[in-house]
Amino acid sequence: MHYLIILFQFTLLFPSSIGSISGTIVDSDTHQPLPGANIILIDTDLGIATDINGKFSLNNIPAGSYSVSASMIGYESQFRANINIYSDRQTPINFYLSSIILEGDVVKVTAGFFEKAKDGIVSTQTIGIEEIRSDPIGSYDIQMMVHSLPSVITATDQNNEIIVRGGGPGENLFIMDNIEIPNPNHFGEVGSGGGPINILNTEFVERIDFFAGGFPVRYGDKQSSVMDITLREGSYDQFNLDMEISAAGAGLLVEGPFANKKGSYIASLRQAFLKYVIKSAGLSAIPEYNNYQFKSVYNLNPRKKIILNIVGGNDYIKIEDESRPDLRGAENVEHLGSQNTVGLTYKTLIFEKGYSLISFGRTSSKWVTDVYSSSNNREGTYFTRDNIETDNFIKGDIVYKFSSILEFSTGINTKYGQYQVQENLSPDTLYFHYYPELDFSSTLDDYYSLINNYPDYNNYYIIPNPLTGDTLFNQGFTSNEDGGLWKYGAYNQFKLSLRKLIITTGIRYDKMSKNNTSVIAPRLGFSFLFSPITKINFAVGQFYQTPSYDMLLNPLNEKVLKHSYTDQGILGLEHLFSDDIKATLEIYSKKYYNKAISLSSLTLDSLDARLGFVDTGKGRAKGFELFLQKKFSRKWYGTFSYSNSKAEGFDSRQGKKIYYPWDFDFENTLTLVGGYKIKFLDLDW
Fold first, then answer.
1. Which of 28, 137, 186, 427 has the highest CB neighbour count under 10 A?
2. Contact status, residue 435 vs residue 457, Cβ threshold 8 Å
3. What pLDDT band is residue 108 in, cutting at 50, 70 and 90?
């Protein structure tokens, strides 16, 4: 659903028709500042060079939209399109330039609009904030936007979860400024990474690096994709206040400097008021939610900084008395959820060769749910949930570039997870209801009219259990678990950058005491420059993932679940038609092992998937993907993506032993997105 958004902007200065841009230019590998780099506004006479700390500030720019280039000898030039300059505002923009090896007397360094994530070899897309703003289908939501990529689908239009190459909704890693987030959405499900509304404020985002597979070893404990979100810093120049009002709610964002401009902050708070809109329409299901976000940066000196990030949200919904006899009371649901992430990071530039990050913090998620058959004093409650999951973490990363061709990176990650799983499901029978038949010309309105006319219709029969013959098809269960577990991770990676060849090779180690698992995952990737505009990319590796807490801690499991993992192989061709048009073609193979599956899928004892799990599942996914993108460099932009894939699970039941289509087996997907920019101020009328 698209909403009309009204944005009010206030500043402490009188309005004018000019603005400014400011930011930094750094080496993409080492994050070292690049003094003397050039910033130019294309098709204007405006430009500036960075200072000794790689910073720049270009003022007195007429309000409007521009393409901006950043260049320096020894580095690939980089373009950014559709950079908006606002009156009396400072637009932040940072560049990460990639170094090149200079050979011969004449070197031509071509500019391009396409950026690549650090150490990204295959299946990688980098998306800037201006692209997110101009995307017509993303609803200004960072997860919605990646749905247009060929690797990604979603289960429903009402949920922005991402399903990548046959994987499940809980196989995706979300990182924000080096801090992991369990699920960046309201109304998220246990063990999932999706929900209908994102809690992250897109105005905080600087760029997104999305990996659909074959990602580097610094990312662990997930086996399908990585969304690495880099947040911008607040304004160091002035105090700004923004208000946002839409059909979904209202939001407030403030930013500004502190400590004599050695630090900056940016904060937002958003509150939904859908209940006031929906009640007037006579509907009973009213989602309520709010979210908050805060980022503060304090620069100890030009080479050291402290970064504080806080993000969280609360949600509530109550569904009651919808008069749906076919649901047999399941329409009476009350749900309360919350999540919060706090992280502190200390960043240091190491000599002139690299940088280090030390982060620690805590994430917490809570789900409280009651399902009941009658709203009269909450009678007949037959399912309850009161689950809490937290992770206390500390992690460290070091990137060090020994020379222009050799780089080494290493890191460690320690987590202490605390959990409380309290669930109760009452035993129940399985009913089949039947009503007077409708003819083929009947409409959906006829169906609803029928069930409204027969609210107490009792024509049904009970389906007996085919194995036991009794009428309690669902035996019910009670889960009451709490405690803690330790998880450890470490990695080492070498990157070799030659004139036409880039090779990354690394190894990752993960250990968890709860299931006594220690795993080693090797990964290898290379990118060969076949010509100045064509690359051949390849990656292969293993990717392990811890079972979600609700699966791992189920008391009905036959044994403790091991880590699931995938073996992945990806081969791609990348061709640059011009500085703003690029095509990629990739084929991939992805095989699943030790996947947790419900015991009910192996027998007919129950239809409830929570009644115990085993780690004997396996599956496979393979396919090819074509992605063509035109950047918003001039007046029009667009993407064309097509994927042909096959995702299958293995049926290990006695007498079966065959592969079958998985839940997210979408064989053919095609997405076409485009836009054309009209500058109305340039028109005579």
1. 186
2. yes
3. very low
Cβ atoms of 348 and 355 closer than 8 Å: yes
Burial of 637 (0-12, 13-18, 19+ CB in 10 A): buried
What does the alpha-carbon distance between residue 211 and residue 149 come to, in Å, rounded to a whole number? Answer: 11
C-alpha 398/C-alpha 56 separation (Å) is: 27
**Cβ neighbours for 547, distance < 8 A, ≥ 6 positions apart:** 515, 561, 563, 564, 596, 613, 615
Q: Provide the greatest CA pair distance for the chain.
A: 89
pLDDT digits (tens, 9 = 90+) for 46-70: 999 999 999 999 999 998 889 999 9
553, 481 contact by CB (below 8 A)? yes
Per DSSP, helices labelled H in 11-91 are none
Tens of pLDDT, residue by residue over 471-488, are 555 667 788 888 899 999
**Phi/psi zone of residue 377: left (φ > 0), alpha (ψ -120 to 50 degrees), beta?**
left
Answer whether residue 681 shows pLDDT above 90. no
> Which residues lie below 8 Å from residue 45, measured CB to CB, with a gap of 6+?
none
Structure token digits, residue 261: 């401009």
Locus of tokens 């958004």: 5
Q: What is the pLDDT of residue 455?
A: 62
Residue 488: which residues within 8 A CB-CB, separation 6 or more?
412, 413, 414, 415, 509, 510, 511, 512
Torsion of CA 252, 257, 259, 264, to 10 degrees: 80
Nearest to 525 by CA among 114, 118, 212, 214: 214
Which has more pLDDT, 82 or 375? 82
CA dist., res. 364 & res. 390, Å (int): 4
- Sign of CA pseudo-dihedral 202, 204, 206, 211: negative
Which two three-digit tokens encode residue 459?
A: 């024509």
Helix or strand or coil: residue 133?
Answer: helix
- Tokens read off for 301: 């000196």
Per-residue tokens: 638: 């667009």
Q: What is the pTM of this model?
A: 0.89
Alpha carbons within 13 A on the beta-carbon side of 144: 23
End-to-end CA distance of the chain: 32
Helix, strand, or coil here: 390?
strand
What is the 3-state composition of the chain as percent helix, strand, coil, each rounded to the nearest 5?
A: 5, 55, 40
Q: How do beta strands 534-545 and 517-531 pair? A: antiparallel
CB 333 within 8 A of CB 295: no
Contact 78, 95 (CB under 8 A): yes
Q: Tell me whether strands 636-651 and 225-231 are parallel, antiparallel or unpaired.
A: unpaired
Angstrom distance (rounded) from CA 109 to CA 75? 8
In our burial notation (b when 16+ CB lie closer than 10 A, e otherwise), range 518-535 reads: ebebebebbbeeeeeeeb
